[in-house]
Structure formats: C-alpha cells, structure tokens
Amino acid sequence: MVILDVPGSGPDPAAWLPVDKRCAVCFHVDDVHPSTSADAYEAGGDLGAGALGHVEWLLERHSRLHVTVATTPDWRETSPVPTRKVLARLPWLRDRVFLAPLLPPGTMRLDRHPDFVRYVAGLPRTELTLHGLHHVHRGLNVPAEFQNQTTAECLRMLEEGLSIFAAAGLPRPAGVIPPRYSTPPALLDAMAQAGFSYVASGRDIHTPVAASAVSGESGLRGVPLFRPSLLPQGLVHLPTNFQATSTVDRALQILDGGGLLSIKAHIIKDCLGYVALDGMDELYRNYLDTLFTLLHARYGESLWWTTMGAIADRVGGRGSAAGRQPSGAMSLPSVA
Ligand SMILES: [Zn+2]
Fold first, then answer.
1. In this structure, what CATH number is given to the domain that contains residue 148?
2. Do the Cβ atoms of 200 and 308 come closer than 8 Å?
3. Could you tell me if residue 333 is inside a domain?
C-alpha cells in the first residue's frame, strides 16, 4: 500500500485538525440493521428499547459526542461462522458456496423497515455510513463481504447499496466501513468511481501508540493508525484503534500525542453464541460514558468530537465537500 499524502507527516503534524483543536475522537458502531429480538439476533431493530438505545443514551449524556453508524442496506447473514460443517472441511468447494444459510433477499432491506429508518435518521449528531450490501460472502470468512470481486462487481454492489439508502429516504453515505474491514484494491477503485470520500479499514487495537505507527491487524495494513491519511485512489482512510477491551491509558496516549482516537463497537453483542468483545451492551456503554466524561474534563474544547465524514471533509478526499471544490482540498505534504 503506497500512501500518497499523509496528513501530519510533514511540517504541520496537526494539518487535518481544525485550527482550534489539538486532537480528535470519533466513535463508530458496526452491523446496524433492522433485525429485532424476535429475529435470530437484535441489531438495532428494537430501536430505543434495544442496543441502539445504549447509543441514544450516550448521545443524550454527552452533548459533544457524534456517532458514525455503519448500516447494512440488505443484511442477509444468519451466522458469522460456517454452520455447514461438512462443506466447510472440503477445500476448493467450500470457497464456492455459502457456508451458512442466508436470509431471503429483501428481508432486512432498509426501505422495507420504515420505523427503523425513521429512528436511526432521527438520532442526533449521527452520520450513517455504508457497511457492505448483504454482509456475507462464500467461504470460511462469512462476514467479509468484499474479497475477490472485480472492480465492476464491487461497483454494482456499492450502487445497489446506495439505491437502497435512497429508496429508504436516507442521505447518501459519504463513506464505507467494509464488513470485517476487508478492503481489496478492487473495492477501493470502485469506491473512487462511485464518488465516496472515505473508507475505514485499518483496525489495530494492540500496536503501541506512536506518531509513526501503522495498522497491522484487520483490513488495510501499513496505513497510519492514529491519524487519517489519503490513499492513492483519493479516498481518505480512517483507522480504528480502540475498543471495549482497550485501556483508558491507550486513549489518553493517543490524544496526548495529537492523534485521532477512533473507537469501535458492534451493535450485536451475542450472535448465536458468538459473543463480540466490543458488543454494545450496558457494560460497554458505561465504560464509554466514563471515558467520554474523562476526555472532556481533560481536553475541554481542544478535543474535536467528530464523525468520519467530517474528518474526510477536512482532509479533502475526492468525494468530500472539500475535494469537490477546485481549490478546496487541503495542501498536505506528499510522501510518495
Ligand atoms: Zn460488520
């Protein structure tokens, strides 16, 4: 992965921040879709009475907090791990079939769930972003939807997702958080063609905090882990570096260093016995409540509470508001 422009690598290490801010925090919640507790698992469909109620509670208690909600337009996954165990043991064949049953197309399509759409669209300070199309793929890594498709296939999937958002009456999302952060080059090329401004991919919650640190776990590797960067496709890249199991010290080190604290959660805590460490439950909610209170006390107005789309607009990716203006993009040092 060649990074053309890396905000913060040149003379002004805080070039991606607004002038009056020294560091930033953004918080994203993945896998949101209309499944209710009457379905296989709840993923936002119970609205305020379910897991999204925890998000709403945090937004009410923290007036500066913004949330990026990664929403899947037509969720079809029933299990994140293979349930067809015999098939899963057969090399070659297992890569060509779905190893868990799929929901029929359209079951969870956003435009068929107007109460859900009304609720998420009504959450304050909340930006919706695209989280795949169906959240499912053939082979062992069921949720990693983008793996080996061509650019044309990725483009068709993205456009179908956008059309479902539009049919549901939702604003066009500015970015994509690919399921499992799986981001092959064909997806990046398709995103650029479709006019997106950002992708959130490099997820690494273990690499020690340092200005020069790059991601080495899920999704894109070798991208800056504690600040946004600009990919060769003109897309702004947003890393993820913090989750429920991360320490308060890690958050403070990131922010003390002038970085982006990028926190993730999954809306589904218990998916058929597969328990997500970062699932949005009361415990994680209370940890974030304490953390956010501490952050405001420590950094005050120097901390930029923001969303991925707002950061992309500052950096000036090709699909962002700044990037669309002839002279709007920030002048960032080139390290190609
Ligand atoms: Zn996901």
1. 3.20.20.370
2. yes
3. no
Could you tell me how many helices (H) and strands (E) the chain has, helices first? 9, 11
Tokens of 28: 């994203």
Asked if residue 307 belongs to a domain, the reply is: yes
pLDDT (average), residues 101-123:
97
Burial 191-212, CB ≥16 within 10 A → b, else e: bbebebbbbbbbbbbeeebeee
Interacting residues of 169 by C-beta distance below 8 A, sequence separation 6+: 111, 117, 121
CA of 79 to the centre of ligand 1 (A): 12
In a domain, 11, yes or no: no
What domain range includes position 187? Answer: 23-320
Compute the distance from residue 161 Cα to the ligand 1 centre, in Å: 15
Which range among 41-50, 136-145, 190-199, 321-330 shows the weakest confidence by mean pLDDT? 321-330
Number of domains into which the chain is organized: 1
Measured in Å, residue 177 CA sits from the centre of ligand 1 at 8
The answer to whether residues 3 and 224 touch, using CB atoms and an 8 Å cutoff, is yes
pLDDT value for 322: 54
For residue 185, how far is its CA from the centre of ligand 1 (angstroms)?
19
Per-residue confidence (pLDDT) for residue 330, from 0 to 100 = 42
256 in any annotated domain: yes
Report yes or no: 175 and 198 within 8 Å, Cβ to Cβ. yes
Name every residue whose Cβ is closer than 8 Å to that of residue 211 and which is 6 or more positions away in sequence: 8, 13, 226, 257, 259
Is 197 within 8 Å of 313 (Cβ atoms)? yes
List the structure tokens of 271: 């998916």
CA 220 to CA 236: how far, in whole Å? 13
8 Å CB contact between 95 and 82: no
Rounded CA gap, 254 and 24, in Å? 9
Stated length of the chain: 336
Distance 239 CA to ligand 1 centre (A): 15
Q: How far is the CA of 176 from the centre of ligand 1 (A)?
A: 11
| Nearest-5° Cα angle at 214, 213 to 216 | 125
Q: What is the Å distance from ligand 1's center to 135 Cα?
A: 7
* One-letter identity of residue 251: A
